[in-house]
Amino acid sequence: MKAKQVSSLPLGDRKVRVQIVGFGVVGRGVAKALLRKTQDGKPSPFVVVSITDRSGSVFDDAGLDLKALVAAKDKHGTITHGAGRVARPDWDGEAAIKNVRADIVVEVTPTNIVDGEPGLTHIAEAMRLGKHVVTANKGPFALRFGEVARLAERAGVALKYGGSVCGAVPIIELVRDALVGNDVSSIRGVMNGSCNFILSKMESTGQTFAQALEGARKMGVTETDPSQDIDGWDAASKVVILANALMGRALTIRDVDVTGIRGVTAEQVRAAKKRGRKIRSIATLTRDVAKVAPVELEEGSPLAVDGTLNVATVQTDLAKDITIVGRGAGQMETASAILADLYAVLRERIQVRGASSDVRPKGLAGLEVREIAQKKVATVDARATLGDAIKVMRKKGISQIPVVRDGVPVGVLSERAVLDLLIRGGRKKLDELRVGDVMGDPLPEIGHRTPVVAVARILERKPAVLITKGIDIVGIVTRADLLPLVG
Fold it and tell me: Which amino acids are annotated catalytic?
């Protein structure tokens, strides 16, 4: 989904301010890629002002020394070691996103397909602050693609995730740009390099699955815990992203039929080889199918690639079959995709809105809104009847309730609005009217770690504020909640 432009104004001659959240293999690859483009005689339009890893954050408004930070991470396993005055051990990713003035957040924390965190919260908070997002993190999209995309549209920011699918293989860009106007009927291919390496090794050496897996581990082809790869969940995440982004299907990872490669035996691989065939883990996406499973392919099939290569064949109505092959994993390969997305944001020439201040306030002013948020928050669907909404409000003891549609806040229903309706003789209509017919404008949304002083300024104009963590609404704050603090 293409984000709305906040402004048609260009960024001008100033550097585009980037912050990197996550400084593992991919994060360091992004830093190296930016360094390489600076050193080859072409000045980079980007300046990295903040980096976060598990030890905290480093921040310098004038720009960080990327070479020194990569070296520190490689040597000490942390970026805050010896960083001196630029180190902020108290800033995790969410705090850094909120406190650093930046244009683009590069979110490259590890993929989590259980709940999408912490990447989901990082991405959502960045967009709510008006920051563009570039990410290779599959978790948030595998679980809640539609909500994340809608939040980007509402916030008016760019959301780029080309690096989340097949690394340097630009399959999303291929379909969205080069094949625009074509109707895509299917996408099929090898979308996990680790699985492909293991199956290729079993084929060429006669090794068992366990032997090939151990060899892949020693070579660094798989993660220390390779289960997401070999059990098919990494490829399934990519299927979900492609389904939502390119085929308009509203899928989550729970909708994908997944079979990993643990059950592939050396005997099966040998038997297939004798028949002139190869076993590969194939992801298949059509209008009706979303599947990942080992499949026998003809040896000459364009999908029968070897080693860590990824490949995808896109079937269209006009261009027919288009096949794209490349390296789908690796530090610099994924960094290449992220760099391409950074330049894509730059090309769109979207003027970002101002972010929050660089330094957190002290004392009472540093109190975060999560500490005063009401715990009895509830929501009601816009399609529910007024009678249903009133029952919820009475049960919760609340005078106003956020209204949602497809998980996204679209308005607020207040007790005052219901009373006005009753005064006008609308009692009989309570079970006939829908909430969406009488709701007011949506309440402002604020991250749960936003300073209370910032919320107070909003409450000068609005009756209440929704408190969110990532995509979820976790509380509501009214003007009355601030009275004990000022009293």
Answer: 238
